[in-house]
Amino acid sequence: MNLKRMIFKRSIEILVVFFIILTGLFVLFHLAPGDPVSMMVDLTMTPEDVDRLVQQLGLDRPLWTQYLLYLKNFFRGNFGTSFHYGRPVIEIISERLPATILLFTTATILAAMAGVWCGKLIAWHKGGPLDATVTIFSLLCSTLFLPWIALLSIWFFAFRVGWFPLSGMITPEIWVLPNLGFWAKATDILHHLLLPLLTLCIVNTGAYLLIMRSSMLETIKEDYIITARAKGLTEKQVRNHHAAPNAALPVITSVGLSLAFSVNGGALTETVFSWPGIGRELIFAVSNSDYPLAMASFMFIALVVLVANLIVDILYAYLDPRIRY
Amino acid sequence: MQSKTETGKHERHSYRAKLLIDAWRLFHDNLIGRIGVCLLIVFGLMALLSYIPPHVDPMYHPMTGVDPEISYASPPSTRHWLGTDNIGRDILSQLLTGARVAFLVGISSAFISIVIGTLIGIVAAYWGKMLDGLLMRFADMVMVMPSLLVILLLSVLFGQLSIWTIVILIALFRWPAVARVIRSQTLSLKQRPFIDMARVAGASHLRIIFRHILPNVLPMALLYMTFRITSAIIVEAALSFLGFGDPNTVSWGMMLQWVWKTGHMFQAPYWLLPPGLCISFMTLSFYMMGRAMEEVLDPRLRRVRNAKHAAA
Amino acid sequence: MPNMPLLDVQNLTIVYRTNAGPVIAAEDVCFTLERGRAVGIVGESGCGKTTIGMALMGLLPENGFVQQGRIIIEDTDLLSLTKPALRALRWKKMAMIFQAAMNALNPVHRVGDQIAEAIQTHYPDYSADKTRKEVAALFDLVDIPRNRIDDYPHQYSGGMKQRAVIAMALSCKPDLIIADEPTTALDVIVQDQILKKIKAFQDDMNIATIVISHDIGVVSEVCDNIMVMYKGRMIEYGKCEEVFMSPAHPYTVALLSSHLSLDSTYDFQADIENITEAPAASVLPGACGYAEKCRHADVQCFVQTPAWRHLSSTHRVLCLKVVTNDQ
Ligand SMILES: Nc1ncnc2c1ncn2[C@@H]1O[C@H](COP(=O)(O)OP(=O)(O)O)[C@@H](O)[C@H]1O
Ligand code: SF4
Ligand SMILES: [Mg+2]
Question: Where is each ABC transmembrane type-1 domain found (chain B) (predicted)?
Fold first, then answer.
């Protein structure tokens, strides 16, 4: 089947791209002013520690050996020790990654679905007052400055109204309670999740909605829509069963194209909401010149984007038989 | 012979002029475009006015001016129309300067990125084959890079970035979309007879590119410039918001960072609201202008669209 | 009522609202059609053929409306129906094979499902199994192998798509089928097959057919009657042999002499040009619409609107210069 071939091909491509990114990071690291040893070495380290690190990274060996060691260390999950936390970077990453994936995937999926759904309805009432209002409103939303709207929503929904917690992902006081059930934990996380999610959705939905709307307006001029009408289907059937599945395809493409952009937004959101994700960790590490943590966080973010890209491609192929068969 | 080419040139010029007038008329009829232009004029005025406050009184200097009598965040007053920040600097004058910086960052970065994108797009389409494949793959790769985070990473490796470095870095991450569009335009131009004719007449590659292709793809490049401006402004604002902006200038993102980092976001809405509003509305206005231009610049699309509709 | 025609179109006038003002796409069109018979509508592109077909389906685009006239199928007046009532009639009473059959199938649904959908809309009590059997039978009918039922449109060749569209049109056993340029995009051999199929169904199932084409050759192969149109007006109507053998209108003569065909390949561009020129509205009032191009035109043609003249009980023509027996 063609789909499997496509997935295989795209996976290889992604591996190559990731490899190039890894190499690029290595090059950048060595291009940077300053001695690589001092960049990887923390003030608190003992001389033995430093020696071991220099050995491990091959910092005293030729550049290409260092490069091979660098790749080897990456695939072994050995990213060094974070200066700030004093713990292995891989531990920190594996703690942070799930939080990011939770926020990022729910936000992307929700925004895309809401955009498709609203865009579909709006396009069907083209030219009316509702259409004009929603279009202008979505334009507005999609250009809102994300950190600002995040601050505003914290100020309003968390601070003034008090519906949501101010920040974080869990309430520590609840989590220390013994034999706390799964559902209690899940509800607590959900409670923390809602506000960042809402913020991301406000900004992303607008863009998807606009794409869906114009895609829908193009699609309803297609001949198969006239066929569907001629068959005696109701307007709702024509819209939902014939127009929408075709019109949604460009939205999926644009979800894929804007993944990198969404990751930027995700990192900002995590930072403002103190959501313990990998994007916040990267920004934090950068502020503290915590090189090992910053580099590793970036690698994993790149990996998340690439994998998400692959998933979007597969979804597209799944929804468009012209690619699948 | 001489006069013939002259008239040809003349005709082409008047034809272009007519196109411009048509485009302007369409643009003028477009509500979204009009709103965009009005907003931009407001921001342009803000940028111009930003030179005034420091001359009125040094305490209105956006960076160094501190009101000697105020050393806390104060709400709007007659002395400070939009209030002051926590060390007594005037918010209005910071806001005006922010407009200048946003224009500077947005336009220069967008300009660089469309130059890169247009060149790469034309080269890829014109020479095709291997080079095309390679360049487009490269474009795809750059496109999936989260630009903000890469720039952050660069700033940890290379230290504090100046505003011009930031401008160039943003441009380096924002050309792929331009390159793709220009490439497909060039590809379709290549099919047109006048390119063949020029080639048969012995025109060099460079001449074909600069005389025949570039003028035709330029409008599209310009359209993309408005969208690039939007994204450049956002990336710069986000960088400054996170504390990695150029510390020698004040920008709207930086103002937001100060509100946030000094913990004034709950107490001082007069400080929190203006910079965010400005960033959002400025990007909105460029975006609106871009959308309006898109409609004006794509007459082919428009015609086919109508035709399809009519044939239905 | 055995003598009552299935379809009776009276004085149909259709207007499009455009930015440049109203465009009359069809004017004063009258004809009737009995069961099992076929009428062909011929004319150059832009003369209003598709518009008439769409009006018969009640599917005019938003900016188009019937300004005048009546469309009566059996004993229902189409124009007076409510939307749901019209929906119930569509496909069951009248079905259409669309001009651009290549795009008439939805790319994201299986061909078989798209046909089944039509059946299930009009026969909601059919089980999934029964519907499936019907679809299979339809595929047999139009000579598409059954194992292609679950394929997607892009996996079909042009001819297969066209046949699938015909199968779809037949799926609810309509009384009337409107075939709009059914063969235009196909190569000659496939064209011939498709025409034969249409002819066969018309005879076997007693279906009334309207065949629309810019190619008088196509129409003459399958139709009993021919209607020639020019700029939105019928200009000649008669039995196929009459029109073909003794064309009376100068335009029909020109049509027939130009290789029996106007243009060998359908030109979408021409349609676009026509739209911008709005030809239908350009008819001078009080003159023959064809006068500017007519070889036989004289002063009279520019000042007098022609009226119908009958050459026989079945053959009529809209031209001032035609000499008839009864004059
Ligand atoms: N939706 C529409 N809006 C405006 N004018 C239309 C529309 N559809 C068709 N027309 C005009 O009506 C005339 C007849 O079109 P059509 O019925 O498609 O012609 P044909 O099928 O004979 O080629 C053409 O001149 C065309 O310009
Ligand atoms: S009426 Fe005159 S102009 Fe019109 S078709 Fe007859 S001869 Fe020609
Ligand atoms: Mg037609």
Answer: 99-290
